């Protein structure tokens, strides 16, 4: 039985700031952002968008009534959840009108959460092949104004529908994973922003990739020549390339060129969104599938997932027949085209607007947010959402 990704959806806020503008305002050479990090634009979430609404908007675009009735498991991977107790999945379950006879849970392990959800989904579908699983990867990467991590912020969500007989990508059984307790990136429960040891995190990202890739080779007997492309978790778009090039030295030149070219294509969307934590690997996959015309049925795609703290995994999948017909390319391109570029001053104003933390009431103006699903306000410590 085939099990894999049947549909993929993505949503980002309608506001963004140009990284050239941000660099100039901060007195930094723009090339440090656009070339050094590989980032052109950074999504800016208005106060009317949080991880719940972002995820609901991503899923809403791909699910039909048949999907909603068949989904009996919702897994929400995030590291910027809105509640320490109630899962973000339960909110989205209600907003989308899913089958009430379903499990809904939230998973956390930095940027790895959605991958863990996918592996759980595979086991669930193996036992219940007539059902479907909705994986949500939604985050707002937030470090603070004028901080070293500011240029690697972002916001967005990816929705992944896992089923038997997938129309996009059959997920293969083999995968390799590795866990080690390290402190490269973390956010204590008392802090609204993350702490990061940037150099150390980069080193560990690469080291974990080398470990899981070596294990994958030994387990499967495969080499780089067997892959049409490899998509990476991308805290910034140059990061994956730093890892990939460490294992390419012995590959034939044409293989190196193919993987390098497809890697660049896989970063297109991420360059214009920024870091979305749990969803960044799967945004990279979406970018690859929607922007590379040379991919074909039977091509093998590698996926490297990394969550600081840290867990790494290498998994793979095989493209299905007519997969291009089941992508949301036009919708995603329209979303990018309709976004609004704001000034650095406007970005700072949006960034500093926050919800109350004392239980007081705050109603939000959702008329300026074009999203179908928005955060409408908070009262008595309870968030309320609106579906337009």
From TrEMBL:
Domain (Hydroxymethylglutaryl-coenzyme A synthase C-terminal) ranges: 176-250, 256-352
UniProt keyword annotation of Membrane present: no
Location of the Hydroxymethylglutaryl-coenzyme A synthase N-terminal domain: 2-163
Keyword Mitochondrion: no
Keywords: Acyltransferase, Transferase
EC number: 2.3.3.10
Entry GO MF terms: hydroxymethylglutaryl-CoA synthase activity
Xref: PANTHER family: 3-HYDROXY-3-METHYLGLUTARYL COENZYME A SYNTHASE (PTHR43323), HYDROXYMETHYLGLUTARYL-COA SYNTHASE (PTHR43323:SF2)
Protein family according to the UniProt entry: Belongs to the thiolase-like superfamily. HMG-CoA synthase family.
UniProt-recorded name of the protein: Hydroxymethylglutaryl-CoA synthase
